[in-house]
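Fimbrial protein
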Amino acid sequence: MAHINLLPWREAALKAQQKEYFSILAAVGLTVLALVLIINFYFQARIDGQNSKNQYLKNEIVQLDIKIDEIKTLNDKKASLQKRIEVVEQLQRSRNVGTQVLDEIAKIIPNGIYITEMEKKGNTLHLIGKSESNNHLANMIRAVELSDFFIDATPESITADDGSPKLLSSFIMKVKIKGLMDDAKTSKGGK
């Protein structure tokens, strides 16, 4: 019995162990590879989901930027229309100014005052005339201040006419019209 060779059995057992080792190693390798692929797919799916959310947000931001631009143009149009409406309203208010001025002048001028020249520039009325006395002129200034149509009566000059037979004094007066914008302001605003 001393001559029994156990080597083939040991070689077969060693080969079986090696085969089992390599199959376990291959199984572990395949499991690790599958695990890495699953983790990779998981994180890639999350990255793709986040990228799609980011792209959606970018598209929405572009849409909102377009709407903001539309709102800005609408606000510009609104401001332009508002200016036009104000000009039309001003023109509507000043439509009958000439008639109203003459009517109001007839009401506020007392006896003894004679208007020789009247000129309207913007919302200012320049009156040039003659007065029999300074009291009549003071009464006219008071009537202007009480008027609903005129404000700010400012006499610029009062000079006595020595050469006239009735001793009339000449005067120049500025009177402003209420609620009427200056023509210079409307022409600047209209441009």
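thats it. Residues 186-191 have pLDDT under 50 and may be disordered. The two ends are 127 Å apart (CA to CA). bye
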